[in-house]
Every structure is written in structure tokens, then in C-alpha cells.
Amino acid sequence: MGVLRHPALFLGVAALAACTKSGPYSTEDRAALQGSIYYVTGGSEHGEGTTVKRLRLSDGRVDALTGGEAPAFVYGQSPTDGRLALTVADDLYLARPDGSELTKVASSPELDWYPRFSPDGRFLVFESARASFRDLYRLELSTSEVVRLTDNEQGNFDATWSPDGRKLAFASSRAGQLDLWVMDADGANPKRLTFHPGDSVKPAWSPSGKYIAFISARDGKDDLFVVRPDGSDIRKLTPEAEAKKRWEGAHVQRYAWHPTEDRIAYEDQAPRAHSQLHVVDAVTGAMKTLSKPEEDDREPAWSPDGEHIVFASVQDDASDIYIMRADGSRRTRMTREQDRAWLPRWTRGDRDAVKEPK
Predict the structure, then answer these.
(1) pTM for the full model?
(2) Can you give the pLDDT at residue 244?
(3) How many domains does the chain have?
(4) Residues 157 and 140: beta-carbon distance below 8 Å
(5) By residue range, what is the domain housing residue 34?
(6) What CA–CA distances, in Å, run from 91 to 43, 136, 138, 299, 347?
């Protein structure tokens, strides 16, 4: 009788060795990783020009996708055809994974930014000042139709799709302070979720759809919270100062949901201390710190398979892109840029053919 080699159970010698290795990834180990890491060099998020770069993990090649003359950022990859959503000089663009066929898809005299693909790849939701201080709009990619989803003077920000694409969560100051709201994907039926004078911002839906994470200063500093989509069960996920003295005065800067599990990687920064990365379970609250005290780690993002975290780290006054396993092991420097490297995003395997979503 032959040996049953189920792909989920059988590991070849090379794959098994890779799983059991410790220490930084070798060149051969990196070649076995999937996808590309996009990041920016130079500039600042709201000011000078930045250059979008791609690190192709299969061969370590780094290519510049933009020229650096204007602020440029990658915001995500289409779930259907692999195209990238970018902003360049406050306009929205799509491009192939290698940066070719860079095509403007939305433009106005004022800024258009923070595009997010819908789960089916049909739409981009984005933030714009084209008709107000800040409102949310939806672009249908197949027709180029733009629909205004919010309409009030106080401002609407940070739109994020529910996993089924039927709802949007966002932050709005329409009630006097920044609170979380949800609405239908067409802008109908807005519902307020938070009622607190401390601002609540940057919502993101969990992969299960059971939670919406957000950052709030309701306790005097920026902490990470979750809430149910109906507004119930608001819980703080970052530890209290009396339980973890290192976090006294710490502020959560950025966070990212695991692609398939209700776990969050996040960055916090305490006064007169480095930024540190942690992973917290949104259900149990169990937390693991990934950074050592001497490490200054920022801007975590997950690999598509959830096995790794990519992040920016400042070492010896140089900011570069690193990866590590989700448990904090195998920390590896991936770039050696002369200028500041930051805001990494890890996308799945590149696709040469680009097809319109159905």
C-alpha cells in the first residue's frame, strides 16, 4: 500500500526544515515566501513626495512604482483581479502588481484618498473633500459611477467594509465628536455605535464580522477597543497601566486584523520609549508582546496567510522593512534603504493578467 500524502498533513524535507528553523530568514527561506511587500520611502503621510516600492519575495527584487515627485501610497489589492489601489497626489489610481498600467479612476480639484476595495472587488469606497470638508463616496469600477454616501458638514472618515460587503463602518463627527457609525453599502440606514466625548476613530471589521475594532481616547489616551456591529459589548483590548507598567501613557498608533482570525497586531508607543508591537486575541483578550524593549517597531501588517507580520523598524536612526513570524520569532531585515522606509503592506502572489470583476 502506498503512503497517503494529504497536502494538509504531509511536509517534504525542505518544508519541514523551514518550519523548524530559528534565526533570520536566509535568502532561500525568503524565496519560499509568497507574494510581494509594498512600502514607501521618503516624505510623510500628508506632506512631501513619497516613492512606492515593491519587494518581490520570490527573488528579492525591489522596484520603484512611482517617481517620488508627489505623495503616493498603496492601500490594498483587489480580491478578484490583483490590481492595486493607490493614491498619487490626492487622486485615486489602479495599477497592475508591477506598477504598470497606472490608471486614474477618480479625480477632483480637492483630495480623494483612503480607497478600500469591496470584498467582491466591484467597488472602491473612499474619502473626499470634493464637495464638503470630508465625505465618503463609492466608485463602481466597471462603470466609473461615483455615488456620494454621506452628506454633512462635520466630516466622515475611515470607511471600512464588512466581510460580506453589505455594510460600511466609519467615523463621523456629525454628533459633535468623532463616533463610530455603520450604514448600508449604499449609504442608507446610518446607525451610531459609540456615545462618548472621547473621539473614536479608525474602525476595521474583523474577518468573522463579529467585531469592529477602533481606537479611542475615551480614557485619556489612544487605546484599542472592539464593539459589536450593533453597538453592544464595547471592550478595551489594551492592558491597564496598573497591570502592565510599561504601557502607562502608551498610545496605540496603528493596528491590523489577522486575515482569517479574530486577532489583532498593533503598535503602541509610550512617552520617552520606543514603539512596540503586540498581538491580542479579540475574544479572550490574551496578549503577546513581539518587540523587545530596545526595538523600535511600527506599522504592523499581516501576510496573506496570517503566518507572518511585516513592519517598519527604526535601528541606528535608519527605518527599514522587517518581517517576523506571528509569534515574534525569525525577525529579519528585508530592506536597506538610504531613505526612510515605512508603511508596509503584504499582498498575495502577483498576477500578470488583469480582468475586470464580474
Answers:
(1) 0.89
(2) 53
(3) 1
(4) no
(5) 25-70+250-350
(6) 17, 14, 14, 23, 22
